[in-house]
Design goal:
The protein is an alpha/beta fold. Helix content is 39%, strand content 14%. The chain is built from 13 helices and 12 strands.
Length: 367
Amino acid sequence: MIYFDNNATTAVEPAVLDRMLPFFTEHYGNPSNTSHALGWAADEAVNLAREDVAGLVGGSPDDVIFTAGATEAINMAIRGVAAAATGRHIVTVATEHKAVLETCRSLEADGFEITVLPVNADGVVSVRALERVLRPDTVLTCVMWANNETGAVQPVERIAAVLADHPSLFFCDATQAVGKLPISMDGVDLLALSGHKFYGPKGVGALLAKPSVRLVPVVRGGGQEKSRRAGTLNVPGIVGLGAAAAVAGQRLDADRRAMQDRRDRFENAVLHHFPDARVNSAGAERLPQTSSIMFPDIKAADMMAQIGTVAVSTGSACSTGSGKPSHVLAAMGLDKQAAAGTVRFSMGRHTTDQEVDAVVRALAAFS
């Protein structure tokens, strides 16, 4: 099996696993109990991971709230801000992950008005359009850093500049961008990430929230994470998240260049065999290892079945199998047939040139 589905999840890096293992069997203390050495060791490990995670995204360790993944972090950000706010208007974008869109829509029952901005044919939102819909009662603007299906990168810095003069908080779902692009919390009030997208374990993530953000807890209980998120901390997972962040920070530039070179070579080869195919979001800045390719007059499901030794997807892993067209591609103007002919190829840190060539040969055989 050749794995080209790294946007769905990545393998845990061996060095990350090595860091995690002792916290299952040796240093298994509860970090909330600092009355003995086992608790001290766990607490220290959590704090070190907090520093590594914050360092990767240009934040402060005090901003980090550990969660069970990006979906929880997203719900914490949107629901937490909404519960603390007096305004009743939230802005988001049509191509956001379902975790963002569904959480925003759920707030309509509480009297919130949700404005969903369109995107252009490359999947990028207009900053001017955002400026036009901002209102005095806009309490939160939700724009992802990079799209999980197409890899399109949003103009985060320009959005942050617009919101700098507005009371709306800026929440950025950076789940797909962390570990692949340089990330900064400058101008961003809240940021979500998940470990399994950058070679860490599943079931652990973080929400970074600046001290100025009023955030009502979504999960209440024992007062962990400075009373922002209750529950016993997943120490092995948090250690793994921190280790993955440290590795990603060291390798970021080299990984980015290598993955982008392979992506471009892969796309050129595919377009040689399928001249009528189209790379979605080709006109936008993209993640360095993501290729969303539309094959006209071909059903993606048929292609995926024939190239069964290659692990790819039709879009978001969270929506695969739903039978519904991708809301991301629909927002970009693709009709149902074009969306049904789209395959997402997402390479990773350990993808080889030989694997790229093998996938191209498998696709060429289908043509």
